[in-house]
Specification:
This protein has 201 residues and is of the alpha/beta class. It has helices spanning 3-14, 37-48, 55-63, 67-74, 76-92, 108-117, 127-134, 148-163, 178-192, and strands at 20-23, 26-30, 52-54, 97-99, 118-124, 168-171, 197-200. The relative contact order is 0.20. The structure holds adenosine-5'-diphosphate, shikimate-3-phosphate and magnesium ion. Its cofactor is Mg(2+).
């Protein structure tokens, strides 16, 4: 880069011409297994240039075991206790995008802490799309049943009224790419919650 270009660039920064968007609270994605919380959350954070964390990934890293192994060895109650601890640690950090596991929002104490430190977004999705995404993968222990599709639909029916308590419901469309979905989510989030981002010099 020529010196003149470099100095012009610095002047722009010094005069505040370059503003950075910062988040005022965490964006917390909730919703069913396969809705895309992990995939969309990661893309959303990349686009907003904020940290991304996923509660399942944090639990796996701390335990050095997969979610399936934790369920098999220590049981669901143990997993749920770790999940609550991890969420409260993640939410205490600098605002970013936090993707939760599908059951996290069911616990009142998790809803409470998410409400205090973040904006909850229910990533909703049709049952057909959920099933198409989860059916190939053996990574979700709750679906290791004789009738995994029936289990998925039952969980969806039980959980939907509780997911509906989120600050925002966002419907993910089956034919859209992850990138297009993130673009639309950013637009809906900033329209519905204008104070979510703030410009910082
Ligand atoms: N438009 C889309 N939105 C979200 N996920 C998508 C989309 N298209 C394909 N996928 C794939 O579907 C899967 C969604 O799973 P994941 O992000 O793990 O969901 P969750 O964390 O909600 O269980 C990923 O493998 C992702 O790559
Ligand atoms: O719905 C649930 O109770 C679960 C969802 C999973 O996360 P994803 O929703 O990211 O698949 C994972 O936390 C665990 O298998 C339990
Ligand atoms: Mg996930």
């Amino acid at each position: 880069m020529a010196i003149s270009e470099r100095s012009r660039h610095s002047v722009t920064r010094l005069t505040g011409g370059r503003m950075t968007q910062v988040l005022t609270r965490h964006i917390v994605l909730i919703g069913m297994m396969g809705a895309g919380k992990t995939a969309i959350g990661s893309e959303l954070a990349r686009r907003l240039r904020v940290p991304f964390t996923d509660s399942d990934a944090e639990i796996e890293a701390a335990a050095a075991m997969s979610i399936s192994e934790i369920f098999a060895r220590d049981g669901e109650a143990f997993f749920r206790a770790r999940e609550a601890q991890v969420l409260s640690r993640l939410l205490a950090g600098a605002p970013g995008v936090v993707s939760t596991g599908g059951g996290a929002w069911m616990r009142p104490e998790n809803r409470q802490i998410i409400g205090e430190r973040g904006l909850s977004v229910w990533l909703n999705c049709s049952p057909e799309t959920l099933w198409a995404r989860v059916r190939q993968r053996p990574t979700r222990p709750l679906l290791q049943t004789a009738d995994p599709k029936g289990t998925l639909l039952r969980l969806l029916a039980e959980r939907s009224p509780v997911y509906a308590l989120a600050d925002l419901e966002f419907v993910s469309r089956a034919g859209d790419t992850i990138e297009a979905t993130a673009t639309r989510l950013i637009a809906e989030l900033t329209a519905a919650h204008p104070t979510l981002t703030q410009e910082k010099p």
